Amino acid sequence: MGNGSPGDGTGIQAEPGKLRVQSAAAHSRVHVAAAAVLFPLRLSCPWGTPKTTSISCSLADVMSEQLAKELQLEEENAAFPEVVAVAEGPFITGENVDTSSDLMLAQMLQMEFDREYDAQLRREEKKFNGDSKVSISFENYRKVHPFDSDSSEDEVDWQDTRHDPYRADKPTITPKKGFIGKGKDITTKHDEVVCGRKNTARMENFAPEFQVGDGIGMDLKLSNQVFNALKQHAYSEERRSARLHEKKEHSTAEKAVDPKTRLLLYKMVSGGMLETITGCISTGKESVVFHAYGGKSATEEDKIIPPECAIKVFKTTLNEFKNRDKYIKDDYRFKDRFSKLNPRKIIRMWAEKEMHNLTRMQNAGIPCPQVVILKKHVLVMSFIGQDQVPAPKLKDVKLNSEDMKKAYYQVLNMMQQLYKECNLVHADLSEYNMLWHDGKVWLIDVSQSVEPTHPHGLEFLFRDCRNVSQFFQKGGVVEALNERQLFNAVSGLNITAENEVDFQAEFFQKGGVVEALNERQLFNAVSGLNITAENEVDFQAE
């Protein structure tokens, strides 16, 4: 191999102290050119112009390496005219190179191949990017050989190092002695810049859902006051999210239902009782009301399902029923089943209470929603409204004087029917719980209604009379009675006391409440004066 000659076709020439290697591609083109000179063929085409005859040259010129270089450079320049040609020349020079080792020759050949491959990659990269402002690099595909003498020792391959150059360094830790430096350049652990960077690094210890951003990369410096405020806020958000998650699993929320309620609604839809649930139409302190279209299948009691239904889902949160036990525990219908320790039982009793009250009102002919079915704390009723639009409340509708007068007498008649025929007191009657639909008033929300024999029954009735009287008097109804007159008209007790304190004391006594106090005892209980006079004149004087 070391004694090769220019005409042996090996592509390797050996001279004393010098080694030259040429690529196989260049020599292949040399052989093609030589064949074209030695064996010329005249290919003529009858309908085309004949090709120009190649310039003849000698055999020595064909076999010379100089011609091969020129041919290769011409082809490269024609393909990539803007790319500067790679400098040619011997890749290894020196008289001390040992060419007798096959390993050394293989390494030198590999290095030459790698250089040609890298040069080709650079040309492809230049062609691919062109004049674009955004360029694509092929550096990851380069074959940088470890024996390449031209490679700089300062180059660092970031893929082979553990340090990420694009990640900012965390602030250095102050030693235990509390300061660094000497003399005027001393820096303590209380330095504003050092503390600010430490606080920024500590923000990474916050909860994952608390977004802190790349403060270290921006060299953000947080003061202790700001960091403590953010830390407290992060802990508060973490506790709040935990509470909301627990509350979501065990209770209904605003405009939402818990998993158990969602399962009940799904069974109603899948069973054919309801066709679809369109959405929420009303929210209150005790329940959430949804609108739904009735299905084709009847209920278990063979009740006909109306085309549009209202689904009342009672909330199961504990804070909504702290003051509602007085509506249930003294009602003889639910007195034995009352349990203050289990809120779900209370809410089921609350839904059952509204169902029974609505049934009484419906049997008496009072305009109210029709009960379809009750499933635990979900009550399905007929929808008061049309085409998903609920009927407006009496406080929101604008009525003329005739309609307002008509509504007043209708409410008076319904209160009398509710008290005498249904043996019920609404206990929360106001313009918020009365709807105006089809030219008449409809009563809703009767879950808190109690019987007149309830210890607070007459008290609730007097409150209802006050709300109704004030609303219609403000609405311009001249015939509207005041609260005491309306109370007598509904209850039929005919109490003649002039002031409110005596009036309440008298209707408690006439209503059969044994525990009711007289006017003087009630005055002492309210005022706390403890006046002991027996007759009324001495009592007032004292």
TrEMBL record:
Residues 148-182 are annotated as: Disordered. Its EC number is 2.7.11.1. It catalyses: L-threonyl-[protein] + ATP = O-phospho-L-threonyl-[protein] + ADP + H(+); L-seryl-[protein] + ATP = O-phospho-L-seryl-[protein] + ADP + H(+). InterPro entries: Kinase-like_dom_sf (IPR011009), RIO-type_Ser/Thr_kinase (IPR051272), RIO_dom (IPR018934), RIO_kinase (IPR000687), RIO_kinase_CS (IPR018935), Ser/Thr_kinase_Rio3 (IPR017406). The keyword Membrane does not apply. Its cofactor is Mg(2+). PROSITE patterns: RIO1. The keyword Signal does not apply. Belongs to the protein kinase superfamily. RIO-type Ser/Thr kinase family. GO terms for cellular component: cytoplasm. Keywords: Antiviral defense, ATP-binding, Cytoplasm, Immunity, Innate immunity, Kinase, Magnesium, Metal-binding, Nucleotide-binding, Phosphoprotein, Ribosome biogenesis, Serine/threonine-protein kinase, Transferase. One of its GO terms (biological process) is ribosome biogenesis. Residues 246-492 form the RIO kinase domain. This is Serine/threonine-protein kinase RIO3. It is found in: Cytoplasm. Its main location: cytoplasm. SUPFAM superfamilies: Protein kinase-like (PK-like) (SSF56112). It comes from the Eukaryota.
